[in-house]
Amino acid sequence: MSARISGVDLPRSKRGVVALTYLYGIGKSLSKKILCYVGINENKKVENWSDDDISKIRKYISDYVKIEGELRSEIQFNIKRLMDIGCYIGTRHRKGLPLRGQKTKNNCRTRKGRKKTVANKKKVTK
């Protein structure tokens, strides 16, 4: 039986700390906090978790942590709000440019996409 938390199957052969990071919105530090609060050794592999352990983790996450779809929708709502109020970061989102002060002359291809070559105007000959 594999551990399934909020629609995500956790890998059985990994340690608990690493396995919880497969959930969107949970990193290593939050994963350690969850396992410490629930009282499970962080080095214990997922395949060795009991059903009681899994239910404790599931309950803690549902009560105190925003993950997966709920977190994704909140992030999208925040981006939309920034675009609606027209602040600097919102306009950068709208234009598809980097948000946090990076230079855009040479790099930032991840945000801008593939190069779009612009042809030069031809000179008029007399």
TrEMBL record:
Q: Which UniProt keywords apply?
A: Ribonucleoprotein, Ribosomal protein, RNA-binding, rRNA-binding
The organism's taxonomy opens as: Bacteria, Pseudomonadati, Bacteroidota, Flavobacteriia, Flavobacteriales
Q: Which Pfam families match?
A: Ribosomal_S13 (PF00416)
Q: Where is this region: Disordered?
A: 97-126
**Stored InterPro entries:** Rbsml_uS13_C, Ribosomal_uS13, Ribosomal_uS13-like_H2TH, Ribosomal_uS13_bac-type
Give coiled-coil spans as residue ranges.
none
Q: Which GO terms label this protein's molecular function in UniProt?
A: rRNA binding; structural constituent of ribosome
Task: Give the CC-aspect GO terms.
Answer: cytosol; small ribosomal subunit
Q: What is this protein called?
A: Small ribosomal subunit protein uS13
Is this entry keyworded Transmembrane? no
Q: Which family does it belong to?
A: Belongs to the universal ribosomal protein uS13 family.
Q: Record's SUPFAM superfamilies?
A: S13-like H2TH domain
Q: Which domain of life is it from?
A: Bacteria
Q: Which GO terms describe its biological process?
A: translation
Q: Which Gene3D superfamilies has this protein been placed in?
A: 1.10.8.50, 30s ribosomal protein s13, domain 2
